């Protein structure tokens, strides 16, 4: 019997705590976590007796033998509201001091601890690499002055060697930085451009399980022959030659074992460093390091997924650029870890003769410019290692892990930029450039136009240096506060890499002249009868529905104006989201006004002396004042809960 009594009391207390939690959350009008609300109600239940006993005693002695009247009911209402008020205060304080999600759960703490340990080991390894290559003083901010060129060269060499030792992620980061002439001095660009992505191949014992998992079966069942000695090896994967059962010779590219975990860890470090620098430094915010890091991470993740490379290969091959051949993927055999493609027959492009070089260079330039300006999908890393001289004397383009994509608006702006450069039109170049890059709020367009005009006068002549041309163009972009988007930076990276490749193919190759010749040919193609006819047809097809409705609309407007019925109707707050926002603001204002009014009335009532005694020694005015004071507190807490919650909700919507 005693056990049943204890159980009944425990259940009653649990029900009361749940009622307190429900009432507190409903009155605050904000959804809290179930655990947080229940704990607040439990704490409130424990605090209720020691906190409310002095309050009840202040009303004076109450005769238990008398019949409860309105005063006793008022006191009971006050006690009930005070009990609900306690968990509300706890929840609002917790919302302000310990926002939801700021204190992780046990599993999150364990995972975070493991991640911190892994990051700490990697940080330690990276720090040792940096100190080994002489970067320690610069990390502490005590490095030598970089005003002279020799100091810049030494630091650039040390940085390149440290990135090379850091592994695949940092090698790729250095390669990306080597294209950002708007961010780094020329000494760093030249040195980082020497970063190589060649490493020792992984042993067959570790590669074979990755192949079997990616192919969905043993290597011997999928291929009629397979060479276990790698044809080539890089930091992300290595390539093997093989033959299918149907007789086709193929190249099998397999991802290095466990590389995804290492890259994910390094990318996490890069993102954290970028976020820290952007939040703590002015130059980090100006460069938008957080967005740059996210774009870099996205590009690396795409390179790790060979299905993306197979799709890139098919997309570039669909452009059908003449003079260049692409390997054909076998989609049925491609997976995230394995890429199988047809093997091209030929040798290194450096084997081209001096007679073949100019034609090959011209074909490669024409191919890449068409990919960039016409197709919008282009090979972003056309260095000599990704080129082959095929047996038929044409070029083969390999390795589509790094591919750039441009939408129609960017391609159109780049086309206008190139055509205006060909005409040496500073106004047209300025307008096209401001469409390619994000337009700053304040810019001196006249000064930018003059700078671009001087730039073209210096560089658009015979025998000019295309590398210096890119450097000067980036200087102009930087001086006028223009920020180059990652996809456009990939275009300049590809063109800068292409320039070195073209010189290797054909020493003395005039990149500027040939690019202007391409612009002339492209302009001629666009100005041809068929192209003009097609463009006019497309524009008319888009305008035809509007042109058919235009006469009727003009007639209606003229008729309404003639009969005095022409009016303009503007609907404010037509969007439901705007209405909800305004309604929420009005509710908060009303709650604040009502809470302040109730509090003021409570103070006035508590200050009135006399009046009928209703409970103990407490008058009716005082009892009403106490109740109004609790009601005012509830309203104020509701407003505060909404205020503390709303900024995080807005941040979440922005994310």
From TrEMBL:
The keyword Transferase applies. InterPro entries: ABC1_dom (IPR004147), Kinase-like_dom_sf (IPR011009), UbiB_kinase (IPR050154). Keywords: Kinase, Membrane, Transferase, Transmembrane, Transmembrane helix. Signal peptide: none annotated. Residues 194-429 form the ABC1 atypical kinase-like domain. PANTHER family: CHAPERONE-ACTIVITY OF BC1 COMPLEX CABC1 -RELATED, PROTEIN ACTIVITY OF BC1 COMPLEX KINASE 7, CHLOROPLASTIC. The chain crosses the membrane at residues 6-25, 37-60, 72-94, 589-608, 620-644. GO terms for molecular function: kinase activity. Belongs to the protein kinase superfamily. ADCK protein kinase family. The keyword Kinase applies. This is ABC1 kinase family protein.
